[in-house]
Specification:
251 residues, DNA Polymerase III, Chain A, domain 2, 2 domains, nine-stranded antiparallel beta sheet, five-stranded antiparallel beta sheet, 45% strand
């Protein structure tokens, strides 16, 4: 048996929204200490690594380790019916293989949805040595990505000890966005050696936009032509991390 209660529905809705940008069916690992999810998008270009310890919840109970696979889109439809400060309770009945969602606010309503067959695939954490680590505001980073999207569908991110530079080039126009170390957007920058890599703007934009609702700060780590790691600072030791493979440019 598994149950949890969240006092602020927005917290749960924002997190499920972040997951929904990469996967439609998600297999959560549930144990007495909390909930975890590690999954790749269907194209295997991006990965999410999510963890909420039991301290994230007002109430949490899991009698034994189990897996729960659910349709994220369907769950999100229900959560979008919630308002901030409403209470959400989830209960998994393993005998009936159904998840019950109860929302309590000005009035109470309950929904049930089926669980799906849990996947047994284990997704390993990418083994990457990062030469650049940058801490930025999610709002400023999102605006920079939107600027780059005006001219292209991909962006080259370059780092030196003093700045991050985003270069986007399309058929007609180009854009260069410079984030200076210590500015209101780029709060900190550590560079072992200069690095540059190119990434899909559609993935970056969706990830940062969705995750910005859960965190004001993002930490980016990357090396030349290697995957980028985007870690979004959570409260109460929660974890929300994305990995995005680079776009390999041919001469």
């Amino acid at each position: 048996m598994f149950t949890l209660k969240v006092a602020d529905a927005k917290l749960l809705k924002d997190m499920i929204t972040s997951i929904s940008i990469l996967v439609d069916e998600a297999t959560f690992k549930i144990d007495p200490d909390g909930i975890k999810l590690r999954a790749m998008d269907p194209s295997r270009v991006a990965m999410i690594d999510f963890e909420w310890p039991k301290t994230m919840f007002e109430e949490y109970s899991a009698s034994e380790p189990t897996k729960m696979c659910i349709n994220i889109s369907e769950l999100l439809k229900l959560l979008k019916r919630t308002s901030k400060d409403e209470i959400v309770e989830l209960n998994l009945d393993e005998k009936t293989a159904k998840l019950q969602l109860k929302i309590t606010g000005k009035y109470q309503r309950s929904f049930t949805m089926p669980t799906l067959e849990a996947t047994e695939e284990e997704v390993p954490t990418p083994k990457v040595t990062f030469n650049v680590k940058a801490k930025a505001t999610t709002q400023g980073l999102s605006q920079a990505i939107e600027d780059a999207q005006l001219v292209s569908d991909h962006v080259k991110i370059e780092a030196d000890p003093e700045k991050l530079v985003l270069n986007a080039s399309g058929d007609l126009m180009g854009a260069t966005i410079t984030l200076q170390k210590g500015s209101d957007t780029l709060l900190d920058l550590e560079t072992k050696e200069p690095a540059k890599a190119t990434f899909s703007l559609s993935y970056l934009a969706e990830i940062i936009k969705a995750a910005s609702a859960t965190s004001d700060i993002a930490t980016l780590e990357f090396s030349s032509d290697m995957p980028i790691k985007l870690d979004f600072q959570q409260t109460k030791e929660g974890k929300l991390t994305f990995y995005l493979a680079p776009r390999i440019e041919t001469e």
